[in-house]
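In the laboratory, one determines a bound structure by crystallizing the protein with its ligand and collecting diffraction data. In a computational setting the workflow is compressed into a single prediction: the sequence and the ligand go in, and a structural description comes out. We illustrate the idea with cobalt (II) ion.
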Amino acid sequence: MMYSSSLCRHRAAACGRGTVEIGPGTPARAPFVRIAAILTFLLSVCCGAAFAEHPSGKDAVLIVAFGTSVEKARISYTNVEERVKKAFPDSVLRWAWSARSLLKKGPKDNPALSVQESLAKLAAEGVENVSVLSLHVIPGSEYADLLQNARAFEGLPKGLRHVRVAPPLLSDTESLRAVARLLLETVPAERGKDEGVLFVGHGTHHPSGVYYPALQYYLQAMDGNAFVGTVEGDLDVASVLRSMKGKGLRKVWMAPLMTVAGDHADNDLFGPEADSWKQRFTADGIQVRSIAKGLGEYPAFVARWIAGLEKTAGRESSR
Ligand code: CO
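The predicted complex, in structure-token form:
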């Protein structure tokens, strides 16, 4: 089934996917993913000379992020990279971006690669085991694509033996409870209990969009004035506004529920245009205090991502 309506307004430019596939559409694409994986792998072997740099180890960590075009938002990625280097000092470290529109950008000698390109390159360099850290918040369509790519590359002749993918930030009940608690800890102490807190995620039309209302359930069990919103999907600005007005809230602390505080935070959440979340709330008499930090800027969330990666890689947590 294909949806193309009510996608985020930066989707074409920043998110790179004009449509989102859900449900039965995903398995049907598996053969194509595998064929694409084989082709990418063969190409990288044939053009091996282009990859002059050869890793010394047989293990690699591949960090997969959506990518961002906003320079200041990279602080989240730098933060994650430092933590991964500490936890996996003997592994080759690589990045891949899932936003197609952002690929091939960046410095010429170090362009952003797709998941397929990165896995093919690692295989051509003789790496055997890849542990993949997914910096996604929910297991949505990009995470599903990542799992397909991992399976497609695993066990190709002379290729990668194991490609193991760590869970996204939200992946089960324990993660929902823990992330809800950590999110509330990010709110400045000066917030009064009669003031709302709102965490706005990207949103999706993928079935895993249920993680957003599920997270709100756990948040509200801990704090009755805490809400989750999404740029795309049902928890939109109008419905969150209705809920907050129903509670008589006059002030809200708003933060992105996104790995980086990039384009969506700058424009959809806090932008000066009349349709941004901040302006819509302000126009309706609810004062907004901005917490403009990405989840990757908080050690607590990065620690959860890394703990998941260590578990996936078969290691004890170094925390
Ligand atoms: Co988007």
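The first strand starts at residue 2 and ends at 3. Keep in mind that any predicted model is a hypothesis to be tested, not a measurement.
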